[in-house]
Amino acid sequence: MKIPHHPYRSPLGRLQPSPVDAEDVKREGWREQHILVISETDERLDFIEREIVRRLGERLYGWRHG
Q1: Cα distances (angstroms) measured from residue 58 to each of 17, 34, 44
Q2: For 13-34, how does the pLDDT look when each residue is reduced to its tens digit (9 = 90+)?
């Protein structure tokens, strides 16, 4: 005998946050609050730009651990 499988739908399901794209959050942060979030390993940057990001991070926050 085959019983159809009906997943239980929790009433809390509507409260679960929808997936967020990190790039959209970064873009919105820059445009609205002038906060720049960038990784020194971002492939969109060339060598000089990555070096600038690394040096700024070290100057503002100290040397990396590890």
Answers
A1: 35, 20, 21
A2: 778 788 899 999 999 999 999 9
Domain ranges across the chain: 20-61
How far the first Cα of the chain sits from its last, in Å, is: 59
Asked whether the predicted pLDDT for residue 55 surpasses 90, the reply is yes
Q: Taking the model in full, what pTM does it have?
A: 0.64
Find out whether 29 and 37 touch, Cβ atoms under 8 Å: yes
Q: What's the number of CA atoms in the CB half-sphere (13 Å) around residue 14?
A: 1
Give the residue ranges of DSSP H helices in 1-66.
Answer: 22-33, 47-61
